[in-house]
Amino acid sequence: MSTSALRRLSAAQVDQFRLNGFLTVEDVLTIAEVEQVAAQADLIAAGKADHIPDTSVQLERIFREGKAEVKDQVLAVRKLYDLAVYDQTMWSHVCNPKVVDIITDLLGVEDIKMYGDQLFMKASETGTAQPWHQDSASWRDILPMDLVTAWTALDEATQENGCLHFIPGTHRWGMMQASQMEPIKADFGGRRWPAVAAPLRPGSISFHHSLTLHMSKANNSGQRRRGYAVHYMRASSWKDEKVTDAPKMPPFKQVQGSCFSGRV
Question: How many other CB atoms sit within 10 Å of the CB of residue 9?
Answer without folding.
Answer: 20
